[in-house]
Write a structure and sequence with these properties.
Blueprint (H helix, E strand, L loop, with lengths): L18 E2 L2 E2 H6 L1 H37 L4 H10 L6 H7 L8 E4 L7 E5 L11 E3 L4 H5 L1 H8 L13 E4 L8 E3 L2 E2 L2 H9 L7 E3 L8 H8 L1 H14 L6 E5 L2 H14 L12 H5 E7 L7 H9 L3 H9 L6 H4 L3 H9 L13 H5 L45 E3 L1 H5 L35 H10 L2 E2 L1 H11 L1 H10 L34 E8 L1 E11 L9 E3 L12 E2 L2 E6 L5 H11 L12 E8 L24 H11 L4 H4 L8 H6 L6
Parallel strand pairs: 3-9, 3-10, 10-11, 11-14, 12-15, 14-19
Antiparallel strand pairs: 1-2, 4-5, 4-6, 7-8, 12-13, 15-16, 15-18, 17-18
Length: 667
Amino acid sequence: MSFPRRRKAPNTQKSEPHEIDGENEDDKKRNPKTNLRKDKRWSCMDSCCWFIGCICSIWWFFLFLYNAMPASFPQYVTEAITGPLPDHPGVKLLKEGLKVKHPVVFVPGIVTGGLELWEGHQCAEGLFRKRLWGGSFGELYKRPLCWVEHISLDNETGLDPSGIRLRPVSGLVAADYFAAGYFVWAVLIANLARIGYEEKTMYMAAYDWRLSFQNTEVRDQTLSRIKSNIELMVATNGGKKVVVIPHSMGVLYFLHFMKWVEAPAPVGGGGGLDWCTKHIKAVMNIGAPFLGVPKAVAGLFSMEAKDVAIARAFAPGVLDKDVFGLQTFQHMMRMTRTWDSTMSMIPKGGDTIWGGLDWSPEGDFDCSAKKLKNNDTQTADQSGKGTLGTTKRVNYGRIISFGKDVSDIHSFEIKRVDFQGAVKGNNLINTTKCDAWTEYQEMGIEGVKAVADYKVYTAGSILDLLHYVAPKLMARGDAHFSHGIADNLDDPKYEHHKYWSNPLETKLPNAPDMEIYTMYGVGVPTERAYVYKLTPAAECYIPFQIDASAEGGSENPCLKGGVFSVDGDETVPILSAGFMCAKGWRGTTRFNPSGIRTYIREYDHAPPANLLEGRGTQSGAHVDIMGNFALIEDVIRVAAGATGEDLGGDRVYSDIYKWSEKIKLQL
């Protein structure tokens, strides 16, 4: 189906010169240099599309081979290598007699929900209601600039650009698979179906994950739809309360929802202070970035993460403009900086939570400790006692350090120059050929130098840094999110919606019978801090880059490729996922005045035994954990009526209790 076209009037006049990319043929004759540059640009685009197309073709080929196998073949080979596979959780629990009881609500995280086109520009002709995000991503390599244009939001409002409407896909298919062969919720849905669940007892609370949380209600009334659907599920299932299962950023989104639904209209949902206790049995948070993730800082600052930094080190220029002429990082930075939701995951709580220049809660973490293999056994305990290594302490509190030496020495040896007084100016290398405008073009050479001269940034100064390098982004973010710690939660200012997704600046609902779980993987190296360097000046460049040459060696194995790692699920450090349920909400506190019971369920990561096992059944990785059999079993048991005590209470492998005790927070 394509967009309707206007009926053309009969052509009675001489046709106008044909336009290409905003420039007609007469202009091209008058401007041969411009024409040459555009031809070169499109030639580079063709090369880029060919390269990405080859990668996708190889992926589809192997996927075809895998799907062409008899259904039992991968299981047969796997069992021949590792022995008989255990029953899937749904099959196992069905044999135990478990069946449907509480309706379940899934809340997907950032980027995992599909987005489809409802209105677009001419370059998107023929894509009406086709997925631009999720699925095959075919339009990314067919028409990359058009795709970026449509995936971006308006840089001033954080809402739809003029003439473009992307909307979330609805139903369970919105986030069952992110792309062909890459499951997100599909395995959990299939196992719930084994004990009798179906669409009337399962609901995917899909939303446009690019928007700020409150703007999903302003534009799409998504929060109202979630409220109505939960009320309907409770009413049509004999009054049984729902079990809510948010994943990743969906955890923060549902925190926002619980405050929104209590608040009076028109800002809130008008459900009243007892809505949650009437409608929610449990909230089972998976991979919860309650207190943010340092990875979000690297993404906003330089459009990088560990894997990207390593790839750039091995193949300089391949991801930059040198080869394809597409200014890849600039386009991606411009696009992602229009997504206000990303600012919900900037680390919260400042130095109190994440540590300062010379301390951090996880400073004694031993990165050299050997990981158990998946056929070994380990008994979880509630002591939180970990093994202390002999390696030197890591200054994890220094989330960004300019130079490996700066990340290591004592703070009194660091000479810092305040960057906030530096004069900005449009005096970078030639910016006239920039295809994608980022706010770095407005900083000037002095501004860039001032950022590097400040040397070290902790969680307490990261916000100042982002305000300096991306003022438009942060101006929108400040209207929708907050990252501090409340002094007095009874202060009326905390009724504003920007505080609702920060667990350190809001109260849990008055729902003493409700349960809150945090369920996350451990044993996977997770990004916690970064060593940066200045990028050599070039046209339209991003001036900062992770220094992939920074290595800690045997003395500091936590530093690899410019990234300091800590224990976590590859995306969310344990501190962020576990602290609130270990301490901040444990018992009756000012953040949990009704004493909602909280439980920690950790899943020790074990990689798949072989390739035919896919992404594994014991993975603790941030997305792969959605196929973890132990996690799925916990979810099904609670949905079928079990409590946290029935599951055995906390299950902890990490040092989360010890690290939480080091954080001095008024409770």
